[in-house]
Amino acid sequence: MNMPEIIEKKVQGQKLTKEEISYFIRGYVAGTIPDYQASALLMAIVFQGMDAEETAILTETMMYSGDVVDLSSVNGIVVDKHSTGGVGDKTSLVVLPMVAACGAKVAKLSGRGLGHTGGTVDKLESIPGFNMQIDNDDFIKIINKVGLSIVSQSDNLVPADKKLYALRDVTSTVNAIPLIASSIMSKKLATGSQGICLDVKYGSGAFCETTEKAVRLSKAMIDIGKQMGRDVRAVITNMDEPLGNAVGNILEVQEAIATLKGEGPQDLWDLSLEAGETLLLQSKLFVSKKKANEALREVIRNGKALDKLAEFVAAQGGDARYIYYPDRFEKAQYVVRIYANKAGYIQHINAEGIGEVARKLGAGRLKKEDPIDYTAGIILNKKVADYIKKGELLATMYTNDDKAITECEKELLEQYQIGPDKVDKLPLIYRVMK
Q: What domains does the chain contain, in order, with CATH numbers?
């Protein structure tokens, strides 16, 4: 067995065996297969694809290239949620405390966000004292006691994906469903959860531009789950405008807290409810969406969901007072209000563009080692389908970088399309798949 033969086989559109895929992954991680051969195979996969069995084998081989978390000592079915990424996506901070308050066991490993704003790790680390670096024993203890723990990924979790993704990023081989699905699912499966709810986003602020691509990616990941004995379901959601009103780490934590109090934006609440119902069904705590829905609404009404977030934060060293008193959070030095330059209906908001402005304000990073300003970000005071008068408040920017303000003011206005015709919002939830 050798790489030129494996590459040629895939170039011809033939199916690779488990032995061939394992040979490739093991050799590439070990450094015995050079980048030029690995990139040749990746490009062949981009053009020829992989079937469901090949994709599952690739995922499993990548999964076992490093550490695998053992959750067998957790009492109950363990569930996890993953989002393919979007602007203003703080759903995990809402839905996971909700389902834990209903009795579910939730284990989540998260990475740091690149690009627009921070990931779940960065949002949680904006809470003073919060510790993402806890060992596996404490991870299990917190899940059993609190029902929820979120930690950062270890350096040896799926090293094959880290190495392959770096290569894909510089060889234009990112955009292939089997490679995307195996990248996501190898990490999710390595965390050990039995039930995984995927929030697969499409639109201008998402990786998948269209619903068709989002459906194909969802099906590929669900098929991987089935072949590996896991309950994987997908909620396909619209990211043609930012989720909620807040974009930026502390701003998003504050919006998540407001939502757990029953005071958050409608779109964030609707998505949290849908994902929460799915996770509770996967936990086998409820047999119908109706009962799961009622339970989720009740833990919002009685305050147990907010209490669960505070309990989780405290268990990982964070100052839970910030959950009950979010005004304690540090504030940006500069607050800049952006006003509409004409009247009309907001017909479109470029989610990706809003995210890029937030990054320039300091809320995101281009490289993992870049610093991040937890206080920076944007509040959207108007969303798609809203009517706005000329001179009315459109959005508010927060930053500590006074040099970024002028450029970001202009760019932020450019992300809005305002016109005379009334428009309807696209449905937030396109489809639920299992």
A: 3-49 (1.20.970.10), 78-324 (3.40.1030.10), 330-419 (3.90.1170.30)
